Amino acid sequence: QVQLVESGGGLVQAGGSLRLSCAASRSISTMGWYRQAPGKQRELVATMTTDLRPNYADSVKGRFTIFRDNAKNTVYLQMNSLKPEDTAVYYCYARGWRNTSNWGQGTQVTVSS
Protein backbone atom coordinates (compact mmCIF):
# COMPACT_ATOMS: atom_id res chain seq x y z
CA GLN A 1 0.00 0.00 0.00
CA VAL A 2 1.29 3.43 -0.97
CA GLN A 3 0.91 6.25 1.53
CA LEU A 4 0.13 9.66 0.09
CA VAL A 5 0.58 12.87 2.07
CA GLU A 6 -1.06 15.98 0.69
CA SER A 7 -0.59 19.61 1.59
CA GLY A 8 -1.35 23.07 0.31
CA GLY A 9 -5.10 23.52 0.30
CA GLY A 10 -6.84 26.56 1.73
CA LEU A 11 -9.00 29.57 1.12
CA VAL A 12 -8.22 32.05 -1.63
CA GLN A 13 -10.02 34.81 -3.47
CA ALA A 14 -11.03 34.43 -7.08
CA GLY A 15 -8.07 35.13 -9.34
CA GLY A 16 -5.62 33.94 -6.73
CA SER A 17 -3.21 31.02 -6.69
CA LEU A 18 -2.52 27.94 -4.63
CA ARG A 19 -0.05 25.09 -4.91
CA LEU A 20 -0.84 21.57 -3.84
CA SER A 21 1.74 18.91 -3.19
CA CYS A 22 1.52 15.18 -2.67
CA ALA A 23 4.35 12.94 -1.54
CA ALA A 24 4.21 9.18 -2.06
CA SER A 25 5.92 6.73 0.27
CA ARG A 26 7.61 4.95 -2.63
CA SER A 27 8.14 5.04 -6.37
CA ILE A 28 4.90 5.26 -8.29
CA SER A 29 3.68 5.27 -11.87
CA THR A 30 1.15 7.92 -12.87
CA MET A 31 0.40 10.58 -10.26
CA GLY A 32 -2.09 13.37 -10.27
CA TRP A 33 -5.11 15.09 -8.86
CA TYR A 34 -8.84 14.60 -8.87
CA ARG A 35 -11.45 16.79 -7.19
CA GLN A 36 -14.94 16.44 -5.82
CA ALA A 37 -17.33 19.32 -5.25
CA PRO A 38 -20.39 18.96 -3.00
CA GLY A 39 -23.11 16.97 -4.72
CA LYS A 40 -20.89 16.11 -7.69
CA GLN A 41 -18.86 13.14 -8.78
CA ARG A 42 -15.12 13.00 -8.42
CA GLU A 43 -13.47 14.28 -11.59
CA LEU A 44 -10.04 14.36 -13.13
CA VAL A 45 -8.04 17.56 -12.74
CA ALA A 46 -4.61 16.58 -14.03
CA THR A 47 -2.25 13.62 -14.12
CA MET A 48 1.35 13.09 -15.12
CA THR A 49 3.22 9.94 -16.11
CA THR A 50 6.72 9.08 -14.96
CA ASP A 51 8.10 10.36 -18.27
CA LEU A 52 6.41 13.70 -17.48
CA ARG A 53 3.56 13.61 -19.94
CA PRO A 54 0.68 15.70 -18.55
CA ASN A 55 -3.03 15.26 -19.01
CA TYR A 56 -5.46 18.04 -18.05
CA ALA A 57 -9.18 18.44 -17.75
CA ASP A 58 -10.43 21.01 -20.25
CA SER A 59 -11.76 23.14 -17.40
CA VAL A 60 -8.27 23.78 -15.99
CA LYS A 61 -6.12 23.98 -19.14
CA GLY A 62 -4.12 27.18 -19.24
CA ARG A 63 -4.68 27.85 -15.53
CA PHE A 64 -3.29 24.79 -13.72
CA THR A 65 0.12 23.21 -14.15
CA ILE A 66 1.09 19.77 -12.91
CA PHE A 67 4.70 18.80 -12.36
CA ARG A 68 6.52 16.13 -10.46
CA ASP A 69 9.84 15.31 -8.91
CA ASN A 70 10.48 11.61 -9.43
CA ALA A 71 13.46 11.62 -7.10
CA LYS A 72 11.13 12.71 -4.29
CA ASN A 73 8.07 10.73 -5.45
CA THR A 74 6.18 14.00 -5.27
CA VAL A 75 3.64 15.63 -7.54
CA TYR A 76 2.60 19.27 -7.46
CA LEU A 77 -0.36 21.19 -8.81
CA GLN A 78 0.10 24.89 -9.37
CA MET A 79 -3.32 26.50 -9.60
CA ASN A 80 -3.55 30.02 -10.98
CA SER A 81 -6.50 32.24 -11.88
CA LEU A 82 -8.70 30.29 -9.51
CA LYS A 83 -12.45 30.50 -9.90
CA PRO A 84 -15.25 29.82 -7.43
CA GLU A 85 -16.13 26.73 -9.45
CA ASP A 86 -12.73 25.28 -8.59
CA THR A 87 -13.92 24.91 -5.01
CA ALA A 88 -13.73 21.24 -4.08
CA VAL A 89 -11.85 18.65 -2.10
CA TYR A 90 -8.75 17.79 -4.08
CA TYR A 91 -7.49 14.22 -3.89
CA CYS A 92 -4.04 13.04 -4.78
CA TYR A 93 -4.05 9.95 -6.98
CA ALA A 94 -1.22 7.53 -7.57
CA ARG A 95 -1.18 4.46 -9.74
CA GLY A 96 1.08 1.67 -8.60
CA TRP A 97 3.31 -0.28 -10.94
CA ARG A 98 0.76 -3.12 -10.84
CA ASN A 99 -2.05 -0.72 -11.78
CA THR A 100 -3.32 -0.41 -8.23
CA SER A 101 -5.09 2.84 -7.36
CA ASN A 102 -4.10 4.84 -4.31
CA TRP A 103 -5.76 7.95 -2.93
CA GLY A 104 -4.78 10.67 -0.51
CA GLN A 105 -7.00 11.88 2.29
CA GLY A 106 -8.06 14.99 0.40
CA THR A 107 -7.40 18.67 0.91
CA GLN A 108 -10.01 21.41 0.76
CA VAL A 109 -9.66 24.23 -1.75
CA THR A 110 -12.15 27.07 -1.38
CA VAL A 111 -12.27 29.98 -3.81
CA SER A 112 -14.35 32.96 -2.74
CA SER A 113 -15.93 35.33 -5.22
Annotation keywords:
globular; 113 residues; seven-stranded mixed sheet; four-stranded antiparallel sheet; mainly beta
Describe this structure in words.
This protein is an all-beta fold. The protein is built from no helices and 11 strands. Strands 2, 4, 5, 6, 9, 10 and 11 form a 7-stranded mixed β-sheet that branches. The protein has a 4-stranded antiparallel β-sheet with strand order 1-3-8-7, with no helix packed on it. Strand 9 and strand 10 form a beta hairpin. It is globular. The termini are far apart.
Structural class: mainly beta
Strand runs, count: 11
* Rg result: 13 Å
* Shape designation: globular
Number of helices: 0
Helices and strands, in order, run as EEEEEEEEEEE
Average residue pLDDT: 96
Helix content: under 10%
Percent of sequence in beta strands = over 45%
Q: Distance between termini?
A: 39 Å
Describe the sheet with the most strands: 7 strands, mixed
Low-confidence stretches: none
Quick take:
This protein has about 110 residues and is mainly beta.
How is the secondary structure organized here?
Layout: E1 4-7, E2 10-13, E3 18-24, E4 31-36, E5 43-48, E6 54-56, E7 64-69, E8 74-79, E9 88-95, E10 101-103, E11 107-112
Parallel strand pairs: 2-11
Antiparallel strand pairs: 1-3, 3-8, 4-5, 4-9, 5-6, 7-8, 9-10, 9-11
